[in-house]
From TrEMBL:
InterPro entries cross-referenced by the UniProt entry: Aldose_1/G6P_1-epimerase (IPR008183), G6P_1-epimerase (IPR025532), Gal_mutarotase_sf_dom (IPR011013), GH-type_carb-bd (IPR014718)
EC code: 5.1.3.15
Gene3D superfamilies, per the entry: 2.70.98.10
Catalytic activity: alpha-D-glucose 6-phosphate = beta-D-glucose 6-phosphate
UniProt lineage: Eukaryota, Viridiplantae, Streptophyta, Embryophyta, Tracheophyta
GO cellular component assignments: cytoplasm
GO biological process: carbohydrate metabolic process
Organism: Salvia splendens
Alphabetical list of PANTHER family matching this protein: APOSPORY-ASSOCIATED PROTEIN C-RELATED (PTHR11122), GLUCOSE-6-PHOSPHATE 1-EPIMERASE (PTHR11122:SF33)
Protein name: glucose-6-phosphate 1-epimerase
Length: 328
């Protein structure tokens, strides 16, 4: 593959008639790394690194960046970049904390040349990524697996579908999370709705189990929690930008929230001192109860992110519109 040249990825031969798939392009940079660019007719785009299968950009039709990516990222082999969307598998040691991401985020993925058929969808740009376990991986985790990611961009929506297949001769169990760093104006102006009254593990308090008492979650200090048995829809409301992120998920019952706040941010070499103010990490995850797969079985999850203009009433967002009323 020539450096800097754009190479179209072949369209999926299993795609159903009537679906209009937009082209995805894979680019090899001068340093030898590869990334995939997705785009659709309204102008929404996404950028995916083959290293780690990590989504490092998602822009809306106005070319506004919706994902956070630290400007202190260490672009080195074997380094996980703080930001974007990445997968944690097969273990999330700190209950989904991005500090313990699982080894697949340090592997080079490939574009899947024989993905499963796509369901009908107009004006979608999609890439299918594949990671197969190697003999070296068995030293980290003694099970053979295939891990697939389908990443799709449509107007106003970013969809990630992870799939895990057991290609071993014995069952195995695993945890999984999609860690999504959202770009926000000011974390002190952000609230999360949909997690009220739920139990959660607090990593800052010896992973003790608590019940959320607040009507909505706001931020005035470090947060590292895993909420359990969460609803399929969660809203992240940015009052200053008048923007609401709606996260829909399936197959991943838990949800983690992470923000390091000022002291820990300054202690991390790959995270800007003020980055905590403009980011929030929210995970779709399955952590409390491990997923078990027998040989030849496959698990599939799904996460959809949309960004919509917030609707206000007396200065406050109507959560019913966010959590129940939006249709896509």
């Amino acid at each position: 593959m020539d450096e800097g040249k754009v190479h179209p990825i072949a369209s999926n031969s299993g795609e159903k008639l009537g679906a209009i798939a937009m082209p995805a392009n894979v680019i090899r940079d001068a340093d030898g790394s590869s990334r995939v660019i997705l785009s659709e007719p309204t102008g929404c785009t996404a950028e995916v690194l083959l290293h780690g299968g990590q989504i490092v950009s998602w822009k809306n039709e106005r070319r506004e960046e919706l994902l956070f990516l630290t400007n202190k990222a260490l672009w080195k082999a074997g380094k996980v970049i703080k930001g974007g969307i990445s997968i944690c598998f097969p273990q999330c040691i700190n209950f989904g904390s991005p500090e313990q991401p699982g080894f697949v985020r340090n592997r080079l993925w490939s574009v899947d040349d024989s993905p499963a058929p796509l369901p009908p969808a107009n004006s979608r740009s999609t890439v299918d990524l594949l990671l197969k376990s190697t003999d070296d991986d068995l030293k980290n985790w003694p099970h053979r697996f295939e891990l697939r990611l389908r990443i799709s961009v449509t107007a106003g929506k970013l969809t990630v579908i992870p799939r895990v297949r057991n290609v071993d001769s014995k069952p195995f169990s695993f945890a999984v999370a999609l860690c999504s760093y959202l770009s926000v104006s000011d974390i002190s102006e952000v609230r999360v709705e949909g997690l009220e009254t739920l139990d959660y593990f607090d990593n800052l308090l010896q992973r003790e189990r608590y019940t959320e008492q607040a009507d909505a979650i706001t931020f005035d200090g470090e947060v590292e929690r895993v909420y359990l048995s969460t609803p399929p829809k969660i809203a992240v409301i940015d009052h200053e930008k008048k923007r609401t992120y709606v996260l829909r998920k399936d197959g991943m019952p838990d949800a983690a929230l992470w923000n390091p706040w000022d002291k820990k941010a300054k202690a991390m070499p790959d995270f800007g001192d003020e980055d905590y103010r403009i980011s929030l990490c929210i995970d779709s995850s399955s952590i409390e109860t491990p997923i078990v797969l027998k040989p030849c079985e496959e698990w599939k999850g799904r996460q959809e992110l949309t960004a919509v203009s917030s609707s206000y009433c007396s200065g406050q967002l109507d959560p019913r519109k966010v959590l129940q009323g939006y249709q896509y």
